[in-house]
Amino acid sequence: MSNSPPGSPRRPSEISSLRGAEPKRKPRGKPKRADSPDKTLPFFEQDQFSDVNIVVGDKILYSNQCLLSFNSTEFMKLLGGDNNAGKGKTKTAGTKSLDLSKHPFKDVVDLMCVIDPRVPYDLTDDAAIRLLPLAEEYDIAPVKKSCSWTVTESFFKKKKGRRAGHIPSSETIRYLCLADKYKMKDLQEMCCDELVANDDPTISRSIVNEGDLSECTKRQVMEKKFEKVSLALARERRKNTEKEQPKDTRGSHIWKK
Hints:
About 50% of the residues lie in helices and about 5% in strands. By secondary structure, the chain is mainly alpha-helical. The protein has a domain at about 160-245. A hairpin with a 2-residue loop joins strand 1 and strand 2. Helix 5 (about 105-115) packs across helix 6 (about 125-135), helix 7 (about 140-160) runs parallel beside helix 9 and helix 9 runs parallel beside helix 11.
């Protein structure tokens, strides 16, 4: 009979732990989902509504002609979906092809995410900046509007709650170039005010040498900076004039006529 004190029998996991092997534990929470765009994005697979093949290099996305033509007049022309009545042309049935191979695949996928109502997509600042050239080239008004709002809101959040002029001048000029090119008036005003409030002495030279800015926008910024300097000089002259004026016994200034 054994002299060892009675105790509860050890479980196999405890025995293996004593021997140096870690017991197997189940992972907490739900298992992570693999990043598979083929399963999450509907235009990666062909369905009964797919009648347009979007060719991007060696890859193909599947979409619908009505969806593309509704969002873009240029897509409508490329797909032959414009009104050809009276021109002796008839609408051809079957799948059509739209070649977008000159654009990066990621940009085309993000573009489809924005215009496809089946995709719940949150447009980021980086994606909006990349999609603006496509929205401009193909006249996609809804995408251009969403991108403009996203970029403007992003710059506003950078300014919110901080002193004017704290954003690096190079970043502000980058946003100003976007505002100038794509006619975003609100963003352009914010960028101009931010550059005027910034005390970086190299801003004026950077603005003049910036090739992506129009002459009109350059002049707008420089005029505002000149106005700021003029007001500062006027205040300084007024202070110096008050110091030079003689005072009476009460300490008030005696103004000479």
